[in-house]
Inverse folding.
């Protein structure tokens, strides 16, 4: 079945870096873009951006430029989110979600990874 | 601030019908997708496109759209439908990001 499996929880100190992985299975990895979504504690979902898994071209939402990097390893059907210079406010659950589209006006995110909790604390 | 607006909270009596709405300019041109999220769990797609349900989603969930408003309707709400619901669609601002979520609606089943 189609699924996304993310790496486990991380506890990091301020200023450190973290790399979250999202391994896809059950479909052709390069046929669908991958989204990244952040959910801070007690807050809603926030779209961080996406990466074209065919070209490797990333697009970052406003507020997620500079310290956030999306990357791929297509040989193992895995997308990555790297966050550098971590701050306490980066504490959140990070989700990957496959992008689906059947028409310009019809898009959706499915499936989702199980989420990775990144905690930034000294 | 989100460009898709949802009511923060809605309640419904068990077995009754509830409509959760999402407003935004982009909804005049793009369909919304809807996600259910229960505490401690990842979001799950419940409706996409004009009114499409993924496999495994009960048929009490339906979607509709009119003008700048998309709606998720639960006909005969069950206790297990208590969750947060988020809409998602294209960002209409012309700037990045391309996609945006509504602020979410907490559904309470009484």
């Amino acid at each position: 079945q189609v699924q996304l499996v993310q790496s486990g929880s991380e506890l990091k100190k301020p200023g450190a870096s973290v790399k979250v992985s999202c391994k896809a299975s059950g479909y052709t990895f390069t046929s669908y873009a991958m989204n990244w979504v952040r959910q801070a504690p007690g807050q809603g979902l926030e779209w961080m951006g996406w990466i074209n898994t065919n070209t490797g071209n990333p697009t970052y939402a406003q507020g997620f430029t500079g310290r956030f990097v999306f990357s791929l390893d297509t040989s193992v059907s895995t997308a990555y989110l790297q966050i550098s210079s971590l701050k306490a406010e980066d504490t959140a659950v990070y989700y990957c979600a496959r992008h689906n589209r059947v028409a310009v006006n019809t898009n959706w995110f499915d499936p989702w990874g199980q989420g990775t909790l990144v905690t930034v604390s000294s | 601030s989100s460009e898709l607006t949802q009511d923060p909270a809605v309640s419904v009596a068990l077995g009754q019908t509830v409509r959760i709405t999402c407003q935004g300019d982009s909804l005049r041109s793009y369909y919304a997708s809807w996600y259910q999220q229960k505490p401690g769990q990842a979001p799950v797609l419940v409706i996409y496109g004009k009114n499409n349900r993924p496999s495994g989603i009960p048929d009490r969930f339906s979607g509709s759209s009119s003008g700048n408003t998309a709606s998720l309707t639960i006909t005969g709400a069950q206790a297990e439908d208590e969750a947060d619901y988020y809409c998602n669609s294209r960002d209409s601002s012309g700037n990045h990001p391309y996609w945006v979520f509504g602020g979410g609606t907490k559904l309470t089943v009484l």
